[in-house]
Design brief:
Elements lengths: L1 E2 L2 E2 L2 H23 L31 H37 L1 H15 L3 H12 L3 H28 L2 H8 L4 H37 L11 H7 L12 H32 L1
Antiparallel strand pairs: 1-2
Helix pairs in contact: 1-2, 1-9, 2-3, 2-5, 2-7, 3-5, 4-5, 5-7, 7-8, 7-9, 8-9
Length: 276
Amino acid sequence: MRIAGHRLSLAAQIGLLVVVANILAALLAPWIAPYTQTQQVGGVWLAPGEGGFLLGTDQLGRDMLSRMLYGARTSIGIALTCTILSFTLGSVLGFLAAVVGGWLDQILSRIVDTLMAIPVLILALLVLSALGASIPVLIGVIAILDSTRVFRLSRAVGMDIAVMEYVEAARLRGEGLWWIIRREILPNALPPLIAEFGLRFCFAFLLISSLSFLGLGVQPPFADWGGMVRDNAQAMEFGIVAPLIPAAAIGILTIGVNLVVDWMLGLQGRTMEDSR
């Protein structure tokens, strides 16, 4: 399998297959799920295959397969939204700091340093406890916190590109700030940013799952993989595998994304060596 003329490694192909399968499950959930995410259809904690339920049932007798499909839609959708917002905010501010420099760079960098000095999970818990655990607040909090990491990367990459001759030539031609960022900085900064996008998605995905497990993420009755682990945690005392199913899904998707990102980082490294 090839992407943009580059052959995917076996690990990257497996990772891409996992990512595509999860995305399709999330998109097609309303059409392929046997039941709705809130419908009680059987006994409590039925084993996989028992009563005709492929993955069994949860603590309220809801179909685990349906909950998993709708949970993919919720977890992946929120994580992807957070990542897109964090990259939009972080990359724009990072490139501005790199190109403009001076007082703007100092102010933005000190704000980012302050936010990064506080552990992300603790700060997210504090904000969500104060503002409430609604989905818009959850997306906003994670996007802002994650944008600090994107800012640091885009600023560092932007500063390296801003001193190149073609950027200086654009300045001498009288090109504006946004033109330079859009036409000169951004295209040359895309490879590391694309790789970082996958890593930031994993971070947002795991953070959402952690917050849901702690009760401050996605709230019932909406299905969410982290919340499903929390809701069915007591099943482990009886040897029931219900909480292991969403936990395994979280781990498999994270590994799949990382396999693709590792291939992209390796490809980027080889490209830089060839250019030398």
